[in-house]
C-alpha cells in the first residue's frame, strides 16, 4: 500500500476520493480540466502576486491541467513541484542558445504520416496530438501534429507492415490514452495483426493525472493483444503517486510497467525526492526505467539541470537504493542509434 504523503496536499484527499466514488469518468475530467491561469492559482490558494512570473500561455501551447492532478498540489505553496510542471511562466519566452523547436531531429525520422523511425527494430506511432496535461517542459510542444494525424483506416500503418525488421511498435503522441477505448482498440488490432511485431509499448501520462483512465475496457484490450505489452508511465515526483493513483494502476499490473522521469530543476533535482520517487514507484508496481535529462526545446531552458549535477545526484541515489530501483540516467541525442547514458564529463 502506498502511504499518502504527509504534506498539505492531504487536505484534498477526501475530496478526490469522493469524486472517484461518485464515478466521475475520465472523459468528464478531461472536459473539466483547468485552462485558466487565475483559476489554477485560486484552486491552490495562491494569489497571482505570489508568482510574479506566472503568465497566460501562448495559444499554440495553452494551459491544461486536470483537477485530480491539481488536488495533489500543496495549497499556498508557490514552489509546489507539481504546480511548477504545469504553470506557464514568463521564462518560457526567454531566448536560450541551443534550444530549438525540434531538439531531437524528429523531422528527419519521419517515414510516413505519424510514423517515426529513430532506432533499429523499433518504430514510433504518433497516435494523437492531444494530451491530458500540458507539461511546460514537453519536448514536443512545437511538434507539427496537424501533419501527422492517423486517419480512421490507419493507412500509414502499412509502412510498419512492409518492414519486417520492426520488432517493437511504440505508441506515443501527444498521449495514446487520449484515444477512446474503442478507437484505441481499433488501432491496436491493426498493430496486433502484424506478425513480425513482438512487442507493443505505450508511453502515457494520462493515468498519472487522471487515474480513472485505467478502465476495464482498456486493460482487456491490452490483454487480448498477441504481442507482449509494455506500459511506460511518466511520474516525475513522489507527490504524484497518491492512494487513488496507485490503486488505479493495479489494473495494469498484468503488463510490464516501467517509469520514465525527466530530471527537472526545481521539481525533482534532489536525491531525497528521487529516492522517494523510486520507492513509491516500486510500491505501485512500476520499475524505475529512465531518469531523462531535459531535451533542449525552446521555452524550457529554466528546467535545465547541468550534467555535473545530474551525475552527482545519480551517484547519491545509487548509494541509497538497490540496483533495480535506480533508473538509468540518459539523454537523447539527435541521430543517435539509442539513448545515451550520461556519465561524468570530468
User: How far is it from the N-terminal to the C-terminal residue, by CA?
Assistant: 42 Å
Helical content band: 25-40%
SSE order: HHHHHEEEHEHEHHEHEHEHEE
Strand order of the largest sheet: 1-2-3-4-5-6-7-8-9-10
Rg estimate, integer Å: 19 Å
Contiguous low-pLDDT stretches (5 residues minimum) are 1-19
Task: Specify the number of helices.
Answer: 12
Total strand count, please? 10
Summarize model confidence as the mean pLDDT. 89
Describe the main β-sheet briefly: 10 strands, mixed
What percent of residues are in strands? Answer: 5-15%
The helix/strand class is alpha/beta
Envelope shape = globular
Protein described:
By secondary structure, this protein is of the alpha/beta class. It is 27% helix and 14% strand. The chain contains 12 helices and 10 strands. The protein has a 10-stranded mixed beta sheet with strand order 1-2-3-4-5-6-7-8-9-10. It is globular and about 55 Å long. Mean pLDDT is 89; it is low at 1-19.
Helix-strand layout with pairing:
Layout: H1 13-21, H2 26-31, H3 37-43, H4 67-70, H5 81-86, E1 110-112, E2 115-116, E3 122-128, H6 158-162, E4 168-173, H7 181-192, E5 199-204, H8 206-209, H9 216-223, E6 228-233, H10 243-248, E7 256-262, H11 271-283, E8 287-292, H12 307-320, E9 328-331, E10 340-341
Parallel strand pairs: 3-4, 4-5, 5-6, 6-7, 7-8, 8-9
Antiparallel strand pairs: 1-2, 2-3, 9-10
Helix pairs in contact: 7-9, 11-12
At a glance:
The protein contains 12 helices and 10 strands.
Main traits of this protein?
346 residues, alpha/beta, 27% helix
Amino acid at each position: 500500500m502506498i502511504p499518502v504523503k504527509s504534506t498539505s496536499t492531504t487536505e484534498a484527499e477526501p475530496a478526490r476520493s469522493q469524486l472517484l466514488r461518485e464515478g466521475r469518468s475520465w472523459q468528464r475530467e478531461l472536459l473539466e480540466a483547468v485552462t485558466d491561469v487565475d483559476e489554477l492559482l485560486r484552486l491552490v490558494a495562491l494569489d497571482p502576486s505570489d508568482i510574479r512570473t506566472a503568465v497566460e500561455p501562448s495559444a499554440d501551447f495553452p494551459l491544461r491541467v486536470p483537477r485530480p492532478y491539481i488536488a495533489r498540489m500543496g495549497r499556498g505553496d508557490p514552489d509546489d513541484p507539481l504546480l511548477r510542471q504545469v504553470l506557464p511562466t514568463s521564462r518560457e519566452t526567454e531566448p536560450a542558445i541551443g534550444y530549438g523547436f525540434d531538439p531531437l531531429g524528429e523531422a528527419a525520422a519521419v517515414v510516413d504520416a505519424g510514423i517515426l523511425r529513430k532506432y533499429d527494430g523499433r518504430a514510433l506511432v504518433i497516435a494523437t496530438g492531444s494530451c491530458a496535461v500540458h507539461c511546460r517542459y514537453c519536448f514536443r510542444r512545437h511538434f507539427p501534429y496537424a501533419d501527422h494525424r492517423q486517419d480512421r483506416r490507419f493507412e500509414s500503418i502499412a509502412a510498419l507492415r512492409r518492414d519486417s525488421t520492426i520488432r517493437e511498435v511504440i505508441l506515443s503522441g501527444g498521449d495514446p490514452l487520449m484515444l477512446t477505448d474503442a478507437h484505441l482498440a481499433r488501432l491496436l488490432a491493426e498493430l496486433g495483426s502484424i506478425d513480425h511485431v513482438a512487442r507493443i509499448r505505450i508511453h502515457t501520462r494520462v493515468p498519472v493525472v487522471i487515474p480513472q483512465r485505467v478502465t476495464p475496457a482498456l486493460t482487456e484490450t491490452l490483454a487480448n493483444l498477441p504481442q507482449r505489452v509494455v506500459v511506460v508511465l511518466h511520474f516525475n515526483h513522489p507527490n504524484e503517486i497518491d492512494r487513488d493513483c496507485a490503486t488505479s494502476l493495479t489494473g495494469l499490473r498484468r503488463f510490464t510497467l516501467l517509469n520514465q522521469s525527466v530530471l527537472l530543476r526545481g521539481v525533482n533535482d534532489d536525491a531525497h525526492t528521487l529516492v522517494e520517487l523510486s520507492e513509491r514507484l516500486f510500491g505501485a508496481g512500476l520499475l524505475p526505467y529512465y531518469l531523462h535529462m531535459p531535451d533542449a526545446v525552446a521555452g524550457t531552458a529554466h528546467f535545465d539541470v547541468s550534467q555535473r549535477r545530474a551525475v552527482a545526484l545519480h551517484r547519491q541515489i545509487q548509494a541509497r537504493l538497490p540496483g533495480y530501483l535506480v533508473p538509468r540516467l540518459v539523454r537523447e541525442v539527435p541521430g543517435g542509434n539509442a539513448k545515451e547514458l550520461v556519465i561524468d564529463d570530468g
